[in-house]
């Protein structure tokens, strides 16, 4: 991929990897990842459950389980957050980078009122007084679409609906005006109408604050409506990366193409939905070659012998595949 200028890049992962020690051996959750996120950019990280999407960013936030270990570098504005001491990381986490978790009920403290959970962020990270923090928090509740925010400000999390709790979590993350917002499957537990509202909220508020957004999702529908760029992960590796329109029009990796084909289409009558055959590999015993080779319809001998490198196929488009699908214009040239 083309190198970005240093002033454009907010987060840069260099040879980033995550492993977990278990009684059965070492699990390679993320392997040799190289990724950049620019200021104000919206990037989607896509893949099946277990592909390493969430662990990638939990590692950056310093929230891995005790048996997890990160290696490589995660440079936030040039500073390696992986090398920070706990107190140093506390000053960065929540202020410069914040995370919206999948389940808002577990992300909120059930024993504290919403008011305290919101104002604490501002008092710690921005030095607000209690009165100023309350005013700022109430304003943010209005901006994220909480009806009658003054009344709900003093409620406990269990007194709010799932959609409102998710909006509260988003408000908490945005109060400190972070440079990077990480959203981990933030719409999974919500109904379709609320999902659309939450995605619009992410779109509007990140654009307004020039906050970079990393959206972790398995839903390509979310990707199409929100992201500028997409990184597709499989078995702990990025297998394809491209601008969102390019990825939908010219998927190069067979895994990306399979994900695209599996999207239900209301305008087409089908007897059976498309599925990807087989199962993801065991992360303790990854294949010698391409991780997707046991499930790939295009597999050849070289795919089994060695893992394919992530190579540039077109401007801003790269894939880790020895036999990528041809681009649309290449197909047309051969008709």
Write a structural description.
By secondary structure, this protein is an alpha/beta fold. The protein has one domain: P-loop containing nucleotide triphosphate hydrolases (Rossmann fold). Helix content is 33%, strand content 24%. The chain has 13 helices and twelve strands. The chain has helices at residues 53-60, 86-92, 104-107, 114-125, 130-143, 149-152, 162-174, 192-209, 220-226, 244-249, 254-261, 301-305, 328-333, and strands at 9-22, 25-38, 42-46, 68-76, 79-80, 97-100, 180-184, 212-217, 229-234, 237-243, 311-314, 317-319. The strands form two sheets. An eight-stranded mixed β-sheet has the order 6-7-8-3-9-10-12-11, with helices on both faces. A four-stranded antiparallel β-sheet has the order 2-1-4-5, with helices on one face. A hairpin with a 2-residue loop joins strand 9 (229-234) and strand 10. The chain is globular. The mean pLDDT is 89.
Could you name the key traits of this structure?
24% strand; 13 helices; 335 residues; alpha/beta
Can I get a quick summary?
The protein is of the alpha/beta class. The protein has a single domain, classed as P-loop containing nucleotide triphosphate hydrolases (Rossmann fold), CATH 3.40.50.
Helical residue percent? Answer: 25-40%
Could you state the CATH homologous superfamily? Answer: P-loop containing nucleotide triphosphate hydrolases
Largest sheet, in brief, is: 8 strands, mixed
> Approximately how much beta-strand content do the residues carry?
15-25%
Poorly predicted ranges (pLDDT <50, ≥5 residues)? Answer: none
Kindly provide the radius of gyration, computed on alpha-carbon positions and rounded to a whole number of angstroms.
21 Å
Overall average pLDDT: 89
Q: How many alpha or pi helices?
A: 13
Number of domains: 1
Please name the CATH architecture: 3-Layer(aba) Sandwich
- Rough shape? globular
Tell me the distance between the termini.
30 Å
The H-and-E topology, N to C, reads as EEEHEEHEHHHHHEHEHEEHHHEEH
